[in-house]
Specification:
609 residues, mainly alpha
């Protein structure tokens, strides 16, 4: 059976399940639209939260980052997992006790200010829009490979599907859809990893295979540590050792901290814990979520390392006439490209060290030819191909292979020669990952506009029906904007785009929520000044370096835009406490409210800060 037909069968079946669930669970009230009625079980909510959390950046891009960067990519693993622990300990039990379904709702009531609520709405829009850009990019990457079309068309198809089931079902429909999506993701991620681990290490447990011996299916092979093997392969072709890093310590720390604190401030994750009935259920749900997340996160490093080995062994020094079919399929969708610089017909994949040893000073007097499967041998460059080729072709660099980090997970089963049904399962998992998070983000974005902006600030007389209609209109507009930036993203690397959203959340919501829970003295003036300072500083830094031509040599202390949210967070704390010190304290009623939400009954009065 043809591979594309198998892909369509797996994806079609999974989509049928999602759509049936969305229709059967469609929201009938604003409470069901925003919080699924508050009656979801901790187990189901744990699965749904894990699916919401494991976005395209996690499922597709994180393992790709591990494959290319090795040790440096651990910033994503440490930041995102550590941040979820921070979120469940410091945030959600208290916010759930406060009883507000959205982050702007908490900010507006805790800081007794419509302006504070408005600022929080603006912050939520920036955070969710930046995050959903990455998800739309992931949808485009998967659909382009699935249908053999360009990424822009893939983005449009994915956006249409997300709007259908998110707009109809609200949080209730999304929750139960995400339960099904988690099941698809878990199997789609782990089953290929098991197959590849057996092939490369003769160990069916990928995590143990990563730290075990490299055998490549040969039981009589001389034992060598898999990590030593991948280090050896990397250094032979001019890359640094896989287990060593090149990011500076301060940049690595700031990126990890920004991802961690940003996780604890993400509105689409926080709102998930309002779908269970009480604080006790919140804690149980958080435990289930961490367990379900671990299934994916503990497998990602193994998948990344396995795909790195497979890529080099399959393509380096291979004659183009002998390359496997999957490589030409990725060429057609412009997610991989080859430039025959020396005219020998072979694919050369070299790192920086080899580039310095073996330089080509000219292209034999001609422009390089972009090889593809088209009739005339030319490759019309678009989005990713344009970024990879025209920006990186260098006469002195013999490297002839370009590819996006985000295709490594999809290409891995094909590189390893796995059964067609495994590839079909993986494709359905990739789509589930991108769509699940995009739907959750879209709901939070529309809720912030319809409930927190329209209902609470602009038009308090809105009926429930009108409020939901505003939410659906906001969803459509947001998806149009997100689709545009999914086609023209701030970075071709999904995880990097998503990291910007975490930086914005770390610099705006995290300090404001944390201080709002644990400081009785913090007032509206301090919170507003802190949020504005943090997000404007972080957003300005990202825009300058991603869109206005800022040079890496201009980075503040060498900190990249991915990590600048940590400095924005520090500024938020400093400005908040400084302004609060010189402005009136909140009323006694607000201070009593803070003490109530953070202190269980019978433990005495909270300490004033």
């Amino acid at each position: 059976m043809d591979q594309k037909l198998i892909n369509f069968i797996f994806i079609g079946l999974s989509f049928a399940v999602y759509i049936v669930i969305a229709i059967r669970s469609r929201a009938g009230s604003t409470k069901e639209y925003y919080t699924a009625g508050g009656g979801v079980s901790p187990l189901a909510n744990g699965m749904a939260t894990a699916a919401d959390w494991m976005s395209a950046a996690t499922f597709i891009s994180m393992a790709g980052a591990v494959a290319i960067s090795g040790y440096d990519a651990s910033r994503f693993l440490m930041g995102w997992t550590g941040g979820f622990v921070l979120l469940t300990i410091l945030m959600v039990p208290y916010l759930r006790k406060f009883g507000k379904a959205t982050v702007p709702d908490f900010v507006g009531d805790r800081y007794y200010s419509r302006m504070a609520r408005g600022v929080a709405v603006v912050c939520a829009i920036f955070i969710c829009m930046t995050y959903i850009m990455g998800q739309m990019r992931g949808v485009g990457v998967v659909f382009s490979q699935l249908f053999g079309i360009g990424i822009p068309a893939g983005v449009v198809i994915g956006a249409s599907i997300v709007f259908f089931y998110a707009g109809i079902g609200g949080m209730k429909g999304i929750t139960y859809t995400q339960v099904a999506q988690y099941c698809v993701m878990a199997f789609a991620y782990t089953i290929p990893a098991i197959f590849i681990s057996i092939a490369l290490t003769n160990n069916m447990i990928p995590q143990l295979g990563l730290i075990g011996d490299f055998t490549a299916g040969d039981p009589d092979a001389v034992p060598i540590s898999f990590l030593d093997k991948i280090n050896e392969i990397n250094t032979q072709i001019g890359f640094q050792e896989y287990t060593s890093g090149k990011l500076s310590k301060i940049n690595m720390f700031c990126i990890t901290a920004a991802l961690m604190c940003g996780t604890a401030g993400l509105p689409h994750v926080i709102v998930r814990f309002f779908t269970v009935k009480d604080v006790a259920a919140v804690r149980k749900s958080a435990c289930w979520t961490l367990l379900f997340i671990a299934v994916i996160y503990l497998t990602a490093p193994a998948i990344g390392a396995f795909s790195r080995v497979n890529l080099i062994q399959e393509l380096h020094q291979t004659h183009y006439k002998e390359v496997p079919t999957w490589f030409k399929d990725f060429e057609k969708t412009q997610q991989m490209a080859w430039v025959d610089k020396n005219g020998d017909g072979k694919i050369q994949y070299f790192g920086p060290a080899k580039s310095q040893e073996n330089t080509y000073t000219v292209f034999k007097g001609k422009q390089p030819t972009y090889k593809s499967a088209s009739k005339d041998g030319s490759l019309e460059l678009g989005s990713l191909g344009q970024r990879l080729l025209t920006n990186e072709i260098d006469n002195s660099n013999p490297n002839e292979l370009w590819f996006g980090n985000d295709v490594m997970v999809m290409a891995n089963p094909q590189m390893a020669g796995l059964p067609k049904w495994v590839i079909g399962l993986l494709m359905s998992g990739c789509i589930a990952a991108a769509l699940s998070t995009a739907a959750g983000l879209l709901l939070v974005l529309s809720t912030s506009i319809s409930h927190d902006l329209m209902k609470k600030i602009i038009k308090p007389s809105l009926s429930d029906k009108e409020e939901i209609n505003y939410a659906r209109v906001a969803s459509f507009v947001a998806l149009v904007v997100a689709a545009y930036f999914g086609i023209n993203p701030p970075s071709a690397f999904i995880a990097k785009t998503v990291a910007f959203a975490f930086g914005l959340a770390a610099s705006s919501f995290f300090p404001t929520l944390l201080i709002g829970i644990f400081s009785k003295r913090m007032n509206k003036e301090g919170a507003i000044a802190g949020m504005l300072t943090g997000i404007l500083f972080t957003l300005g830094y990202i825009i300058y370096f991603q869109f206005l031509g800022g040079k890496p040599s201009q980075y503040l202390w060498g900190i990249t835009p991915e990590g600048i949210g940590f400095l924005g967070m520090i500024l938020n704390f400093i400005v908040s406490f400084t302004v609060a010190r010189f402005t009136p304290a909140p009323s006694q009623e607000i201070q009593d409210l803070v003490e109530n939400i953070r202190s269980p009954k019978g433990v005495g009065a909270a300490v004033e800060h």
